[in-house]
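User: Sequence in, structure out. Go.
Assistant: Echoing your sequence, followed by the structure tokens.
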Amino acid sequence: MTNCAVTNPAHRDSDAGTTAGIVARALVVLGLLYLFLAGVSMLERGINTLGSDVQDSLFDNVSNPLVGLLVGVLATVLVQSSSVTTATIVTLVGSGVLTVDEAVPMIMGANIGTTVTNTLASLGHVRKGSEFERAFAAATVHDFFNILAVAIFLPLELATGFLSSSAEWLAEKLVGTSGAEWDSPIKEVVEYPVNWLTDIFEALGASGNVLAGLLIISALVLIFTSLAFITKNMRALIADRIEQTLNRVLGSGGGVTAMFVGLLVTVAVQSSSITTSILVPLAGAGILKLENAYPVTLGANVGTTITALLASLATGEPTALTVALTHTLFNVAGIALLYPIPPLRVIPLKLARGLSRAASENTSVVLFYVVTMFVVIPVVGIAVLR
């Protein structure tokens, strides 16, 4: 009697369905990425349509680097996404509203503002004593690293321009030009829906600043929505794999490897907040030590810069690419300076542990920290310095 392997039809259909679902979701992500780039191009068109007087009033005194820094922090806190903030900044540079020098502090501020999400995520453990202490430390180590990096590199950049000049050199090598608009194939493709929507608004009688306002609002809705759904779909595709990989790699304590995991996961899900927020419950449960979670946040900082790089492709402007590359170089430089040197590496760890101990003893410390750091200082600073 011959034994034949029989495949269960239901199992085969299930596998096919799963594969088809993955392919369908991946195609949805590609479509959403196209809409995101179209939104960036639409935002540039709307800003360029605004009169120069309106542009000047919107960004008055942003040339003050401290104001730019605080605007970047507050904008990112409000939209809960550094990706949206940096994409918008890149678009403003591409449209000529902001200069590279004005944009760099805003980009650095976005790095600080994005840390509020995982800090808030740690509050889910607030009534669990030592678990909250571990979770809050894992969240705020990201805050302190970014604050320390800005404190070091913003003055250096203002004094020497080493980040922006390096990024400008690299942009020239990549696009093969200096100063002139470069022929981005992506820009040409994503302008079709922009032209279509512009024609519709004009047919309805919109012109001048009204047309500009409609384009800007439509662009922001498109950018917000597409990024939100990209993140949702990518997380659904690889969420289980993310947690399995983080547990396996980070549990072994590999610093450089953990950075690459943080980078790759963030590029995949288009959100550093998701990457860093995953660490919070793992640290709170005691699965990960703070030292093992720490390098993932550094990799996530680099991975989140991909959004600005993509946005620069939709503008076709070397200055926009320069700002996007400055964002990447800033985060890489922060890692290169602060992580390899033990006395510097432990500063964010010590600060995070100290704050988390105080927060576990008195939960009002948490409210004071979050409101002061992410709301009061930016709002008051902008009001006073402007």
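User: And one key feature?
Assistant: DSSP finds 17 helices and no strands in the chain.
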